Amino acid sequence: MYYDYIVSAAAKQDAGGICYWGKHNLYDWLCGRIDACFERERTLKENSRGSVELLRHKRTGQRVICRRYAGSGEVYRRLMGVSSPNLPAVFETAERGGRVITLEEYITGDTLDALLRGCPLTEGETRRIVRDVCAGLWVLHSMAAVHRDVKPENIILSGDRTVLIDFDSARMNKPEAAGDTRVLGTIGYAAPEQFGLAQSDCRTDIYAVGVLLNVMLTGEHPSKRLAAGRLGRVVSRCTMMDPNKRYRDIPHLLPEL
After folding, report:
1. Is there a single domain that holds both residue 181 and residue 133?
2. For the chain, the helix, strand and coil percentages under 3-state DSSP, each to the nearest 5
3. Do 143 and 73 fall into the same domain?
4. C-alpha distances in angstroms, 136 versus 49, 85, 150, 165?
5. Known active-site residue 160
6. What is the chain's Cα-based Rg?
7. Domain limits at 31?
8. Using one digit for the tens of pLDDT, what is the confidence trace for 92-148?
9. Cα dihedral angle (197, 200, 205, 210), rounded to 10 degrees?
10. Do 197 and 179 contact (CB within 8 A), yes or no?
11. Rounded alpha-carbon distances, angstroms, from residue 202 to 29, 149, 240
12. For a Cys staple, 41 with which of 54, 58, 88, 232, CB 3.0–4.6 Å?
């Protein structure tokens, strides 16, 4: 099992039995355990915010993903212990001074972005994949988290399993806030409110799902070419500039798919 070699709560003690929660630095401890137990196979992504590395456990050979980035790890902490076929399992996370480190499940497969380089998908394939993405989003939204970066590069197709990954831009919804504290997202998929106009919430992800749906069907952004028929009308409602005019949540969107 993963917890044979990945940090568990029971293992967070030093030789003297002192827990590494609280006054001891879990971030440094986790970094040390990663260096001791894993070898770096390759870097999958690296930019100014951080990096994503593929690690292999020295004893078992099991692969995991290690993310290091600047931001908040609250969503990753909420996902620890959550089981969903449409989200990667989060094994451990720690943060210090705005720096986050996380160990999560390695999903084998191709990104949706790679698949779309050939040609647009059929309506049946599109419906199936988008429904699975929505199922993953509903898990996040149910814990008051917003992904904020739904796009083909963050969707992995592994057999019949569709997995939404990368919660580095995710945040907890704070109804009392006037707007997001940090502008994050991908141009084209990011909703207007992500650019400082208002606070992002579950309808922000619904906007991105609408763009995703259109790109999968037509290969283009809905502002350039709108999908035909019923799904085109779904795209139009998902991508309304005013969040109040979009589907209000995933359970209201899913039946339309």
Report:
1. yes
2. 35, 20, 40
3. no
4. 24, 8, 11, 9
5. no
6. 19
7. 9-105
8. 999 999 999 999 999 999 999 999 987 889 999 999 999 999 999 999 999 999 999
9. -20
10. yes
11. 34, 12, 14
12. 54
Same domain, 100 and 144: no
CATH number at residue 207: 1.10.510.10
CATH number for position 52 = 3.30.200.20
Distance, CA of 16 to CA of 31 (rounded, Å): 20
Q: Is 32 exposed, middle or buried (0-12, 13-18, 19+ CB in 10 A)?
A: exposed
In whole angstroms, how far apart are CA 81 and each of 71, 200, 253? 21, 25, 27
The predicted model scores a pTM of 0.87
Residues 95 and 137 reside in one and the same domain: no
64/206 Cα distance (integer angstroms): 29
95 and 154 in a single domain? The answer is no
Q: How many residues does the chain have?
A: 257
Mark whether 64 and 125 lie in a shared domain: no
Angle at 47 between CA 46 and CA 50, to 5 degrees: 75
**Domain check: are 115 and 38 in the same one?**
no
Question: Is 23 inside a domain boundary?
Answer: yes
